[in-house]
Design goal:
Layout lengths: L3 H17 L2 E3 L4 E5 L4 E3 L2 E3 L3 E4 L2 E4 L2 E8 L12 E2 L9 E3 L9 E3 L9 E8 L6 E2 L4 E6 L5 E4 L5 E3 L4 E6 L10 E5 L2 E2 L6 E4 L8 E7 L3 H4 L4 E6 L2 H4 L1 H29 L2 H8 L21 H48 L1
Parallel strand pairs: 2-13, 15-21
Antiparallel strand pairs: 1-4, 3-10, 5-6, 7-8, 7-11, 9-10, 11-12, 11-13, 14-16, 16-19, 17-18, 17-20, 20-21
Length: 346
C-alpha cells in the first residue's frame, strides 16, 4: 500500500497541474473608444481539464461564460452585462466566443457608461473549474477626438517604386482594432484598417490623405496628409520611344526604296523590249548613250552626213531596182517553163 503522505503529495501535484492549466488571456488590457463607435475586446481562455477528489480524477467542462463591469470576481449575484445562461442580455454586448476557448466580446454604440473595466469569468460543472482573471480590460471613452496620420517616413516627397505606410492614430488615446475610413482627395478608399500600406508608389498615388473613425467620421477626421510622388519612370521611357520611332522610320524608308527599285526595273529598256517588241530587236527610242558616235565638227560633220545620205539613197534605189528585176524574172520563169513544155509537145 502507498503511504498516506505520498497520497497527499500526489493529490497536491494533480491539483497544481490543473490550476496551472487554467488561464484567461487579454491581448491588451486598456483601450480607447469614441462614443457611438464599436469596440472589440479579444479574449481567450484555457479551462481546467479535471480535478482530483478523494484520489480520483474527475473531468471538468465549461458550462457558463460571463462578462461583468468593475467587479474583481464577477461571481454569484453580481450583475453581468453578458451571461450565457441568461436570455435578457443587453443587445449592445455581443458575445463572439464559445465555451471551448474563445471569450471575445463586442460592444456596439459605446457610451460613457462603458468607461470601465471589463472582466471575463468561466464556470464549469464543478466549482473547481470556476475562474476569473482579475486583470480585465479598461476602456476610456471620449466623446470626440481628432485623429492624426503618422508616416513611416517623415519625408513627404517620394520617388516612384518606393513604399510607405500611413497610420491613423491619436496622442490622447490608444485605440485597438479600429474601424477606420480612409479618404484620398475626398474619395473613400476600400481600406478600413488603422494602417494604410502603399507599395510601389506611382504618380497616381500623389494627393491628400485623411482618416477618421468609421463610427463618427465628421468629429474624428484627421488633418490632410500631403503625399507627393515624383514620376521618374516617364523620363526613362524616352529612349525607348525614340528607338521605336527610329525603327518605324527605317522600315518605311526601306519599303519606299524597294518599291522604287522594282518600278525602275519594270521600266528599263530590256523589260520594254521583252514585253512589247519582237525578240532580238531593240527599241530605237532607247539607244544607250555609249553606242552613239562621238561629237564632231558641226560643218564638216553635216557635209559628211549629207554625202553619206546621198550614197545611201543611191544604193537603196539600185537595190530596189535589182529587187524588182529579180521578182519579174522569178514570175516569168514559170511561164517560160510552161511555154517550153507546150512547144515540145506540139
Amino acid at each position: 500500500m502507498v503511504p498516506r503522505d505520498k497520497k497527499v503529495l500526489w493529490s497536491f501535484m494533480f491539483l497544481l497541474a490543473g490550476a496551472l492549466a487554467q488561464n484567461i488571456q487579454y491581448p491588451f488590457t486598456s483601450t480607447c473608444a469614441v462614443t457611438g463607435s464599436t469596440v472589440i475586446l479579444p479574449c481567450s481562455f484555457t479551462p481546467k481539464k479535471y480535478f482530483i477528489k478523494s484520489g480520483t480524477k474527475i473531468p471538468l467542462k465549461v458550462t457558463r461564460a460571463r462578462w461583468c463591469i468593475n467587479h474583481l470576481v464577477c461571481h454569484g449575484t453580481v450583475p453581468s452585462l453578458y451571461d450565457s445562461d441568461s436570455e435578457n442580455n443587453d443587445p449592445r454586448y455581443r458575445y463572439l466566443g464559445d465555451l471551448e476557448g474563445n471569450c471575445t466580446l463586442q460592444i456596439r454604440g459605446v457610451g460613457m457608461q462603458d468607461n470601465a473595466t471589463f472582466r471575463f469569468r468561466m464556470e464549469a460543472n464543478d466549482t473547481a473549474g470556476h475562474f476569473t482573471n482579475q486583470m480585465g480590460v479598461s476602456i476610456t471613452v471620449v466623446e470626440a477626438i481628432r485623429m492624426k496620420i503618422n508616416s513611416s517616413d517623415q519625408n513627404n516627397k517620394f520617388s516612384s517604386g518606393q513604399a510607405i505606410s500611413l497610420q491613423c492614430t491619436t496622442s490622447r488615446c490608444t485605440f485597438n482594432h479600429l474601424e477606420v475610413t480612409w479618404h484620398k482627395d475626398g474619395h473613400t478608399l476600400s481600406e478600413n484598417g488603422s494602417t494604410l500600406h502603399l507599395s510601389t508608389l506611382t504618380a497616381k498615388d500623389s494627393g491628400n490623405y485623411t482618416c477618421a473613425l468609421t463610427s463618427n467620421i465628421v468629429m474624428t477626421q484627421s488633418e490632410p496628409f500631403s503625399l507627393q510622388v515624383e514620376a521618374k519612370e516617364e523620363a526613362s521611357n524616352l529612349p525607348l520611344i525614340a528607338g521605336v520611332v527610329f525603327g518605324v522610320l527605317l522600315v518605311v524608308t526601306t519599303l519606299i526604296l524597294f518599291i522604287f527599285i522594282i518600278k525602275r526595273k519594270r521600266t528599263s529598256p530590256e523589260s520594254l523590249n521583252t514585253a512589247g517588241g519582237e525578240p532580238g530587236k531593240k527599241n530605237a527610242d532607247h539607244i544607250p548613250s555609249s553606242v552613239l558616235p562621238p561629237p564632231r565638227e558641226e560643218a564638216g560633220y553635216r557635209r559628211q552626213e549629207t554625202g553619206q545620205e546621198a550614197e545611201e539613197v543611191s544604193y537603196a534605189s539600185v537595190q530596189f531596182k535589182q529587187n524588182q528585176q529579180n521578182r519579174r524574172k522569178a514570175e516569168e520563169e514559170p511561164d517560160l517553163t510552161i511555154y517550153s513544155s507546150v512547144t515540145t509537145r506540139g
